[in-house]
Design goal:
It is built from 7 helices and 3 strands. The chain is mainly alpha-helical. The longest helix is centred in the N-terminal third of the chain and has 21 residues, at 13-33.
Length: 148
């Protein structure tokens, strides 16, 4: 058996990314909570920002969640004034979700929170290591089809 096969679980990329992901998620969740938001809310706001008005069903497919969850998230965001529902002009049975100015402001604040967390989480890295980490993460998320 080679050395890599004998390495402990804690030495694997999967374990380390999972641990860091859980930490980042918990801290982000706590901080956006002060805005009355949850991570799924931010995901929807980000999707509407990048893709424009989108049907609830398309959102569910894109985020790989149940359509009923999108309805719940959209209800919460609509109550905050962050999204509006509009009838789809090509099919009046469908509704499109549209990001409002309030939604854009919330997304801007969430982005600032995420950047603050980036600084905290990468504080032990020099600029070259931060750049390498950003490049590696961009490659992985694109390769795995998580981002365009």
């Amino acid at each position: 058996m080679n050395a890599a096969a004998r390495a402990p679980l804690t030495a694997t990329t999967t374990y380390r990314l999972g641990l860091l992901g859980a930490l980042a998620h918990a801290r982000f969740t706590e901080r956006i909570g002060s805005l009355g938001l949850k991570p799924k809310d931010v995901a929807l706001l980000g999707l509407l920002h990048s893709e424009g008005p989108t049907t609830q069903l398309a959102v569910a497919r894109r985020l790989a969640v149940a359509p009923s969850l999108v309805v719940t998230v959209a209800d919460r965001l609509e109550a905050l004034g962050a999204v509006r529902r509009l009838r789809d002009q090509s099919d009046r049975r469908r509704q499109q979700l549209v990001l409002t100015d309030t939604g854009q402001e919330l997304l801007t604040r969430c982005t600032a929170i995420a950047r603050e967390l980036d600084e905290e989480l990468t504080a032990g890295l020099d600029p070259a290591a931060r750049q390498a980490l950003d490049a590696a993460l961009a490659t992985l998320t694109t390769t795995l089809g998580l981002m365009n």
